[in-house]
Each structure stands twice: as structure tokens, then as C-alpha cells.
Amino acid sequence: MTEHVKVVIIGSGPAGLTAAIYAARADFSPVVLEGEPSSTSDQPGGQLMLTTEIENFPGFVDGILGPELMGNFRSQAERFGARMHGAKASRVDLSGGRAAIWASDATSDEPTYTADAVIVATGARSLMLGLDNELRLVGHGVSTCATCDGFFFRGHRIAVVGGGDSALEEALFLTKFAESVTIIHRRDALRASKIMQDRAFANPKISFLWNRQVTALHEEGGSLAGVTVQDPAGGAEERHDFTGLFVAIGHAPNTDVFKGQLEMDDLGYLATQPGSTATSVRGVFAAGDVQDHIYRQAITAAGSGCQAALDVEHYLAGQEA
Ligand SMILES: Cc1cc2nc3c(=O)[nH]c(=O)nc-3n(C[C@H](O)[C@H](O)[C@H](O)COP(=O)(O)OP(=O)(O)OC[C@H]3O[C@@H](n4cnc5c(N)ncnc54)[C@H](O)[C@@H]3O)c2cc1C
After folding, report:
1. Closest ligand 1 atom to the C-alpha of 53?
2. pTM of the prediction?
3. For ligand 1, atom 42, which residue shows the shortest CA distance?
């Protein structure tokens, strides 16, 4: 049977759970569709569930483990009356004024929830290489975020995989900490802008492995100890003893379920109105990495979750007036 609620929040990373804290304290008893267990970042708690120490989230002088931080967010939201539902939004209908959301079973005739307002906080995922032990090594030598993890790699020999602007930006940032940074690219030319290429070529700490793709990750004592690379066209494998590997081959927002219903940019990120978290549909708001491909930090996601809940509060007050 369909349950009507004031606010449904889809996603339980820093954006969704911060929105839940604010919406619960505003007395909306929000339901949070938390997502479903998985070994990727698309799981209850979001991307920080994959990492170890978080040192840049304000308020934790000695840092805090990612899963512990997300456990705290969740408990804080529950303390004020947010209801957690461990399921994914498998189908939505945002066309009829009152949003309809199906949890888990998309084939059911009736939606699980209808809601006066919805906050979409389904986040994004880093594209990965697809190697067996890759996800297990995230936080143990493998990373997808130089801003987040660069500090842990002081004095390391690091490799960055990718050939676009973000790969070069990560590489240049990492030269502050690393002994050396090697860019591994599967082609013989970069996709990055000329200015970024010039900066990378001029940096004495940066070198390149052209026409190479990573085919294996080697570990010692649970941490990355080296990588094997090979020409995508075939040929001999080579081992390199990198102790840090930053995968910078792109990100993808988790927006499939909203296709055709919410406006998105070319990459699939949700479009929000300037100075607001409002999407192209009235009563539907978006927060966190699902609408931000620039900053992509826990604190910015949490900040926009707060904004979305405040926008919902104003929107619902306007509906009642
Ligand atoms: C390995 C790693 C380390 C990082 N380290 C740091 C760091 O040190 N400091 C920092 O500030 N940032 C760090 N980041 C970045 C940070 O994790 C993200 O910016 C932040 O998590 C984004 O929050 P979010 O709430 O927007 O989305 P996410 O954290 O991506 O959460 C999205 C949530 O939505 C859920 N979801 C997706 N689809 C559906 C659906 N259809 N229905 C219901 N739920 C759904 C997912 O299961 C998940 O719970 C790191 C990221 C990674 C991957």
C-alpha cells in the first residue's frame, strides 16, 4: 500500500543524511531511501564507506574513519525522527504534482511512497579500472581523489591513470607530496587542455608511460606494492613498484532512474537553478555529488544537503500558505 509522506530523501551519503537531519528537525519526519548493500560506493552511507581515514571533515581534530563518520550522520538523523528504509528508488514518477517513488520493486502497480517534496542525493561514482582487488585496495594505496588522499602519500612513488584535465590536475597536485608522479595513459597523446599539458610536461616530478594500461595490482600486507602495465595492443607486461595509484578516468552520477524526468547536463548530472537546489520539477531538489561535478567533497555535499532541506522547508511553507 502506498504511504504518503511530506519528504522523501533518496540517497544516504553526506548530502542525503544532512538533508535528513535538517528535514527531521523541521518536523517533516522524512523517509530516507538509503540504497542497498553493495561492494561499490553505491551503498548505504555512500562513497565514504569505501575509505579509511577522513582528515578534512571539520570537527574531527584527529580525523575519523569514513564508515564511522557516516554511522554518526545516520544516528544523528534518526535521533530527530528520520526514518531509514534500506532500499533503492527503482522508479519515480515526478510528473503529477505529487511525486511517486517505488522502493526496490519497480514493477509494482502502486508506488511505495508519494511525497510533497523530494530531495535527490544519489551521489556519483568514480569510474574504475575493473581489476579484481581494486576496490579492496581503495584506502590502501588506491584512490580516486587527490584532494582527499594526497596528504597520505608523502614521499611515495605515485601513478595516475588517465589523460584528461582531471588526471593532470590530480597529478600536479600530487607532486606536492610524492617523490615522483607517473601518468599512465592508454594512448600516445593526452585529451587534456593545452595549458594543463604544458604544466604537466614542465613539472620535473611528472613522467609518462604512454600506450599503457594497468592490467594487475600487486599488494603486500594488504597495501598496494606495484602495478603491471601492458600496451593495449598487446606485448610484454612490465611491473612498476608504485605504492600509490590514483584512478582519474572520470565520474558518473547515479541518475539513471531520473532520465527523462529531470533536466540533466551532457554528463548526466542533475541541473539545479542558480543559487538554489531546485531542479527542473517543482518540489524536487538535488544535493551533493549528483549535481556537482566540480567540488565533490563530503563537506560540500553535506552543505548542499542542508541547503536542499531549507529549500524544501520554504517550498512546503509556500504550499500551505
Ligand atoms: C575513496 C573515496 C575517498 C574519499 N575521501 C574523501 C575525503 O577524505 N574527504 C572528502 O571530503 N571527500 C572524500 N571523498 C568524496 C566524498 O565521499 C563525496 O564527495 C561525498 O560522499 C558525496 O556525497 P553524496 O551524499 O553527494 O553522495 P554519495 O556519498 O555518493 O552517496 C550517494 C548515496 O545515494 C545512494 N543511492 C544511489 N542511487 C540510489 C537510488 N536509486 N535509490 C536510493 N539510494 C541511492 C547510494 O547508495 C549512496 O548511499 C571520497 C570519495 C571516495 C570515493
Report:
1. 8
2. 0.91
3. 88
